Amino acid sequence: MKAIVYQQAGLPLNDPQSLYDTELPKPQPGPHDLLVKIQAISVNPVDTKVRQGNQPDQPKILGWDGVGIVEAVGDNVTLFSPGDEVFYAGSLIRPGTYAQYHLVDERIAGRKPASLNAAQAAALPLTSLTAWELLFDRLQVGDGEGKSLLILGAAGGVGSVLTQLASKLTSLKVIGTASRPETRDWVNSLGASVVIDHHQPLAEQLQTAGIEQVDYVASLTHTDQHYPQLVDIIAPQGRLGVIDDPDMLDVVPLKRKAISLHWELMFTRSLYQTEDMVRQHQILNEVARLVDNGTLKSTLNTHAGTINAENLRNAHQLLESGRSQGKIVLEDFD
């Protein structure tokens, strides 16, 4: 099968070996696996972080978001059958979706939204799972009545879904951050009540909007840069959710206000084979239902062409520029 791999970490993207085309054996499903023929994929920050910093012993297939058709199933599979269309975000410790065929545990896959094509659906799994788990499993916002949520980085992949979930499924007052006119418009269109600029002092902008403090913060990017401001604007007994990778995060300043800190990593359930691993199957099916009834929309913003090494290098470069909006998707093989 065709696959795109890397073997040397940290190579610049203008080096063809940073991601290159190859041929690999078609994988065979284990007991709980679906063998999926890949139709579309998207790129995520985790793709670039692993490529830059993880040195593999052999050529490694990156990619976690995947959409495709189930070609075969393992002996213990009960949730899907060959021919089913699925979407999912995969496992951090298994080969990725930059390949014509991919194995995924059925418990972390969902049915593809019927109203979306493969490219549109590929934009959703990892970000939807991260946003859903952060909002409902970690921050535990409930219905959010009378409460407010600040989303730091609301125009990105996770932020684009989180803004929709919070504004459509809860009563939270949703404040998003975005710094460019086009991203501010995007965040507004997704349902944010207020949009502020994360390059400017946060407290002053919130006060201008009539907001003294916020009850919840979802910090999706550059947490270490904004951390002192976040501690300042979170209400006593508020909650801070984090998904990025700050070099250091001192929790002591949270004590005075009894602010709780919540880490979200979408891969935790599959990494540790937790008892509730099937919850990701359930979340993705609910996301598909909400898409199909018009509540949620795909956050696909850039279609980067067919799935090959050159297009993936370009997609990684755009993602690393920090100027991408929504999700970057690739579709079909040459």
Any idea what the shape is? globular
**Span from first to last CA?**
12 Å
Number of strands: 16
Computed CA radius of gyration, to the nearest angstrom:
20 Å
Question: Which spans have pLDDT < 50 for at least 5 consecutive residues?
Answer: none
Beta content? 15-25%
**Helix segment tally:** 10
Give the % helix. 25-40%
Average predicted local confidence, pLDDT = 96
Classify the secondary structure makeup into a structural class: alpha/beta
For the largest beta-sheet, the strand count, sense and barrel status come to:
7 strands, mixed
Summarize the helix and strand pattern as letters. EEEHEEEEEHHEHEHEHEHEEHHEHE
Description:
The mean pLDDT is 96. The protein starts with a strand and ends with a strand. Helix 3 crosses helix 4 and helix 3 crosses helix 9. It has ten helices and 16 strands. The longest helix is centred in the middle third of the chain and has 14 residues, at 125-138. The protein has 334 residues and is an alpha/beta fold. The strands form three sheets. Strands 3, 5, 6, 7, 8, 15 and 16 form a seven-stranded mixed sheet that branches. A six-stranded parallel sheet has the order 11-10-9-12-13-14, sandwiched between helices. It has a three-stranded antiparallel sheet with strand order 2-1-4, covered by helices on one side.
What is the fold's blueprint, element by element?
Elements: E1 2-6, E2 20-23, E3 33-43, H1 45-53, E4 60-61, E5 66-73, E6 85-88, E7 101-105, E8 109-111, H2 118-122, H3 125-138, E9 148-152, H4 157-169, E10 173-177, H5 181-189, E11 194-196, H6 202-208, E12 214-219, H7 223-233, E13 234-242, E14 260-263, H8 268-271, H9 279-292, E15 300-303, H10 309-320, E16 327-331
Parallel strand pairs: 9-10, 9-12, 10-11, 12-13, 13-14, 15-16
Antiparallel strand pairs: 1-2, 1-4, 3-5, 3-7, 3-16, 5-6, 6-8
